[in-house]
Design a protein that fits this description.
The complex is a heterodimer. By secondary structure, chain A is α+β, with helices and mostly antiparallel strands. Chain A contains 4 helices and 6 strands, in the order H-E-H-E-E-E-H-E-H-E. Chain B has 2 domains: 257 residues, no CATH class; 108 residues, no CATH class. Classes of the chains: A alpha+beta, B mainly alpha. The complex binds iron/sulfur cluster (SF4) (4 copies). The site of one iron/sulfur cluster has 12 residues of chain B, from helix 6, helix 7, helix 12 and helix 13.
Amino acid sequence: MEQESKFGRRDFIRVAATAAAAGAAWAAAHPSSGTTVWQLDPAKCLQCGRCSTTCVLNPSAVKCVHSFEICGYCDLCGGYLQPGAKARDSGAENELCPVGALKRTFVEEPFYQYTIDEELCVGCGKCVKGCAVFGNGSLYLQVKHDVCVGCNECSIARNCPANAFQRVPVRNSYLLKTRENGGKGHK
Amino acid sequence: MKLKLLAAVFLLLGLWTVQAATEFRFPMPEFESGYKHPAMSIPPASKTSPWVDLGLLAGALALSAWSVLRLRSRRYVFLIALVSLAYFGFYRKGCVCAVGSMQNILSAFFDPGYAVPLIVSAFFLIPLLFALYFGRVFCAAVCPLGAIQEMFAIFPVQLSSAVEAVLGLFAYAYLGLSVLAVYMGAGFLICRYDPFVGFFRQGASFNMFLAGGVLLLAGVFIARPYCRFLCPYGVLLRWASRFSKWHATITPAECIQCRLCETSCPYGAIVVPTPEDRPVDQRTGARRMGRLFLAAPFIIVIAAGAGYLSHEPLARLHPTVWLAERVAGEEQGRYEEKTIDGDAFRAGKRAATELYAEAHALKERFKYASACFGAFMGLVLCGKLIRLSIVRSNKDYVVDRGACLSCARCFAYCPVEKSHAAK
Ligand code: SF4
Ligand code: SF4
Ligand code: SF4
Ligand code: SF4
């Protein structure tokens, strides 16, 4: 067999394949591009509910976040209360959140602070919708990076009807609503 | 300094009031009690440095090669596989993955704007390079998908070589389809249908668990079914491994034809010697091969035609084509219920005609791409047939370098191994 010869056909193919594979990998890489992670743009999100059902994790890595700085601290909170709620208190029949993850605490007359219990939140987006329709839109969904496992192809991104998912640099991995961006969630 | 800051604050405040008038329904309150709002909870991403992953990959590959080629120890190979399964599988949740990285590399070729970090490139490249020099040592002990199946290969049975060959074609089809999907921008099929990632994350859809469970249970008898009959990256490794410089050998020295290793390989990777009583006729082989070469163009054209004909269902892999069909169907009242996707589209600014036009253009491209996929399958078929018709006369028991996963099982069956070790 030609294995004994000095530089056989197989050696040639091996060297050529090494060069081709290395060249391809080098050509494909963007040396400057760092790691990226998935994030959803709250300006595009429609609160369809798929974030809570199509993540590979259960409960989902997408959870509600609260930009306190744009919150109106309303007593009558569209994100906290059912539309026809009889009383503005924490009775389960009045709360919009199906898992009771949104907590209400009194600040001063007539303001209330709303906080999300992340252990409970399933990212269903019900409060987000309520807040967007009746309030300032200070409640919105984000991929929580302490939970997200960073799928190569995010399973929610594929199912999102609003194409709200995109890859963002790992250093700047949230698309937050602030006063400066007018609550739009863009940088 | 202070002035500048003040100016900036005023500027921002000015901007904000303009926007606030349009954006926010309720004014942000000014608290009298001196209340300060809590910080937002936005934990940063990534706990593991990619260099740790890369180091572990290279280290595990080197150890695996060492265990297979030098130590010739199945026990070490198995231990490395356990560690890889724990780290790359359960700790990293299966998502720093050489198998899937292939799609990122392809994406970068088809779409120059797609950014592939160096680390992902390295994950794609390094196992292939190892295969070119040491055989499939990645599959032996480093790949978490392989490792989880290896743990389940308890009572392996041997398949007939014909069944093995036919089932093996599926891996090529899967490779072709995933390239097609990336080329058309229809997503990453390998990730979507990864059967074991659900176990690594302890969470997945029912179908994913079902597929994974069925494969693992089947794998008790038909060892590592995903590796042999599905894995697209395995196809590349198979190609690379055929030309490997060093490779696992059944016997450390001379084969003494004792036949003891014959049934030791669960992956059908041992090539038995050509029987003495049936001397091979090189001429028949050559004639068969000549006929095959003549038939090859026809096989490829027919396969390309079959691919072309299946472009409609293949096009549905693309979300835009799917959405266009859905929206059109909902428009014509073909569906009972409306979907969120349809509603979202109608709520948007785009006209339906625009969506249909885009879907149509995509379908046209799918015709061509599906034909290419068909042609690729035709080529694979011809390649397989030609390989089968090559008459080799080997007197010894040797491994098929493409199919061998370097699992090191057969070593212990060889009596030469023991006498060798005794020395
Ligand atoms: S899937 Fe998209 S639209 Fe639906 S809730 Fe998530 S981000 Fe919003
Ligand atoms: S309503 Fe849904 S998104 Fe909002 S806090 Fe509750 S679980 Fe989370
Ligand atoms: S990348 Fe994976 S884990 Fe993260 S949000 Fe998407 S599906 Fe969930
Ligand atoms: S064949 Fe594929 S899945 Fe199996 S061990 Fe090799 S790379 Fe992993």
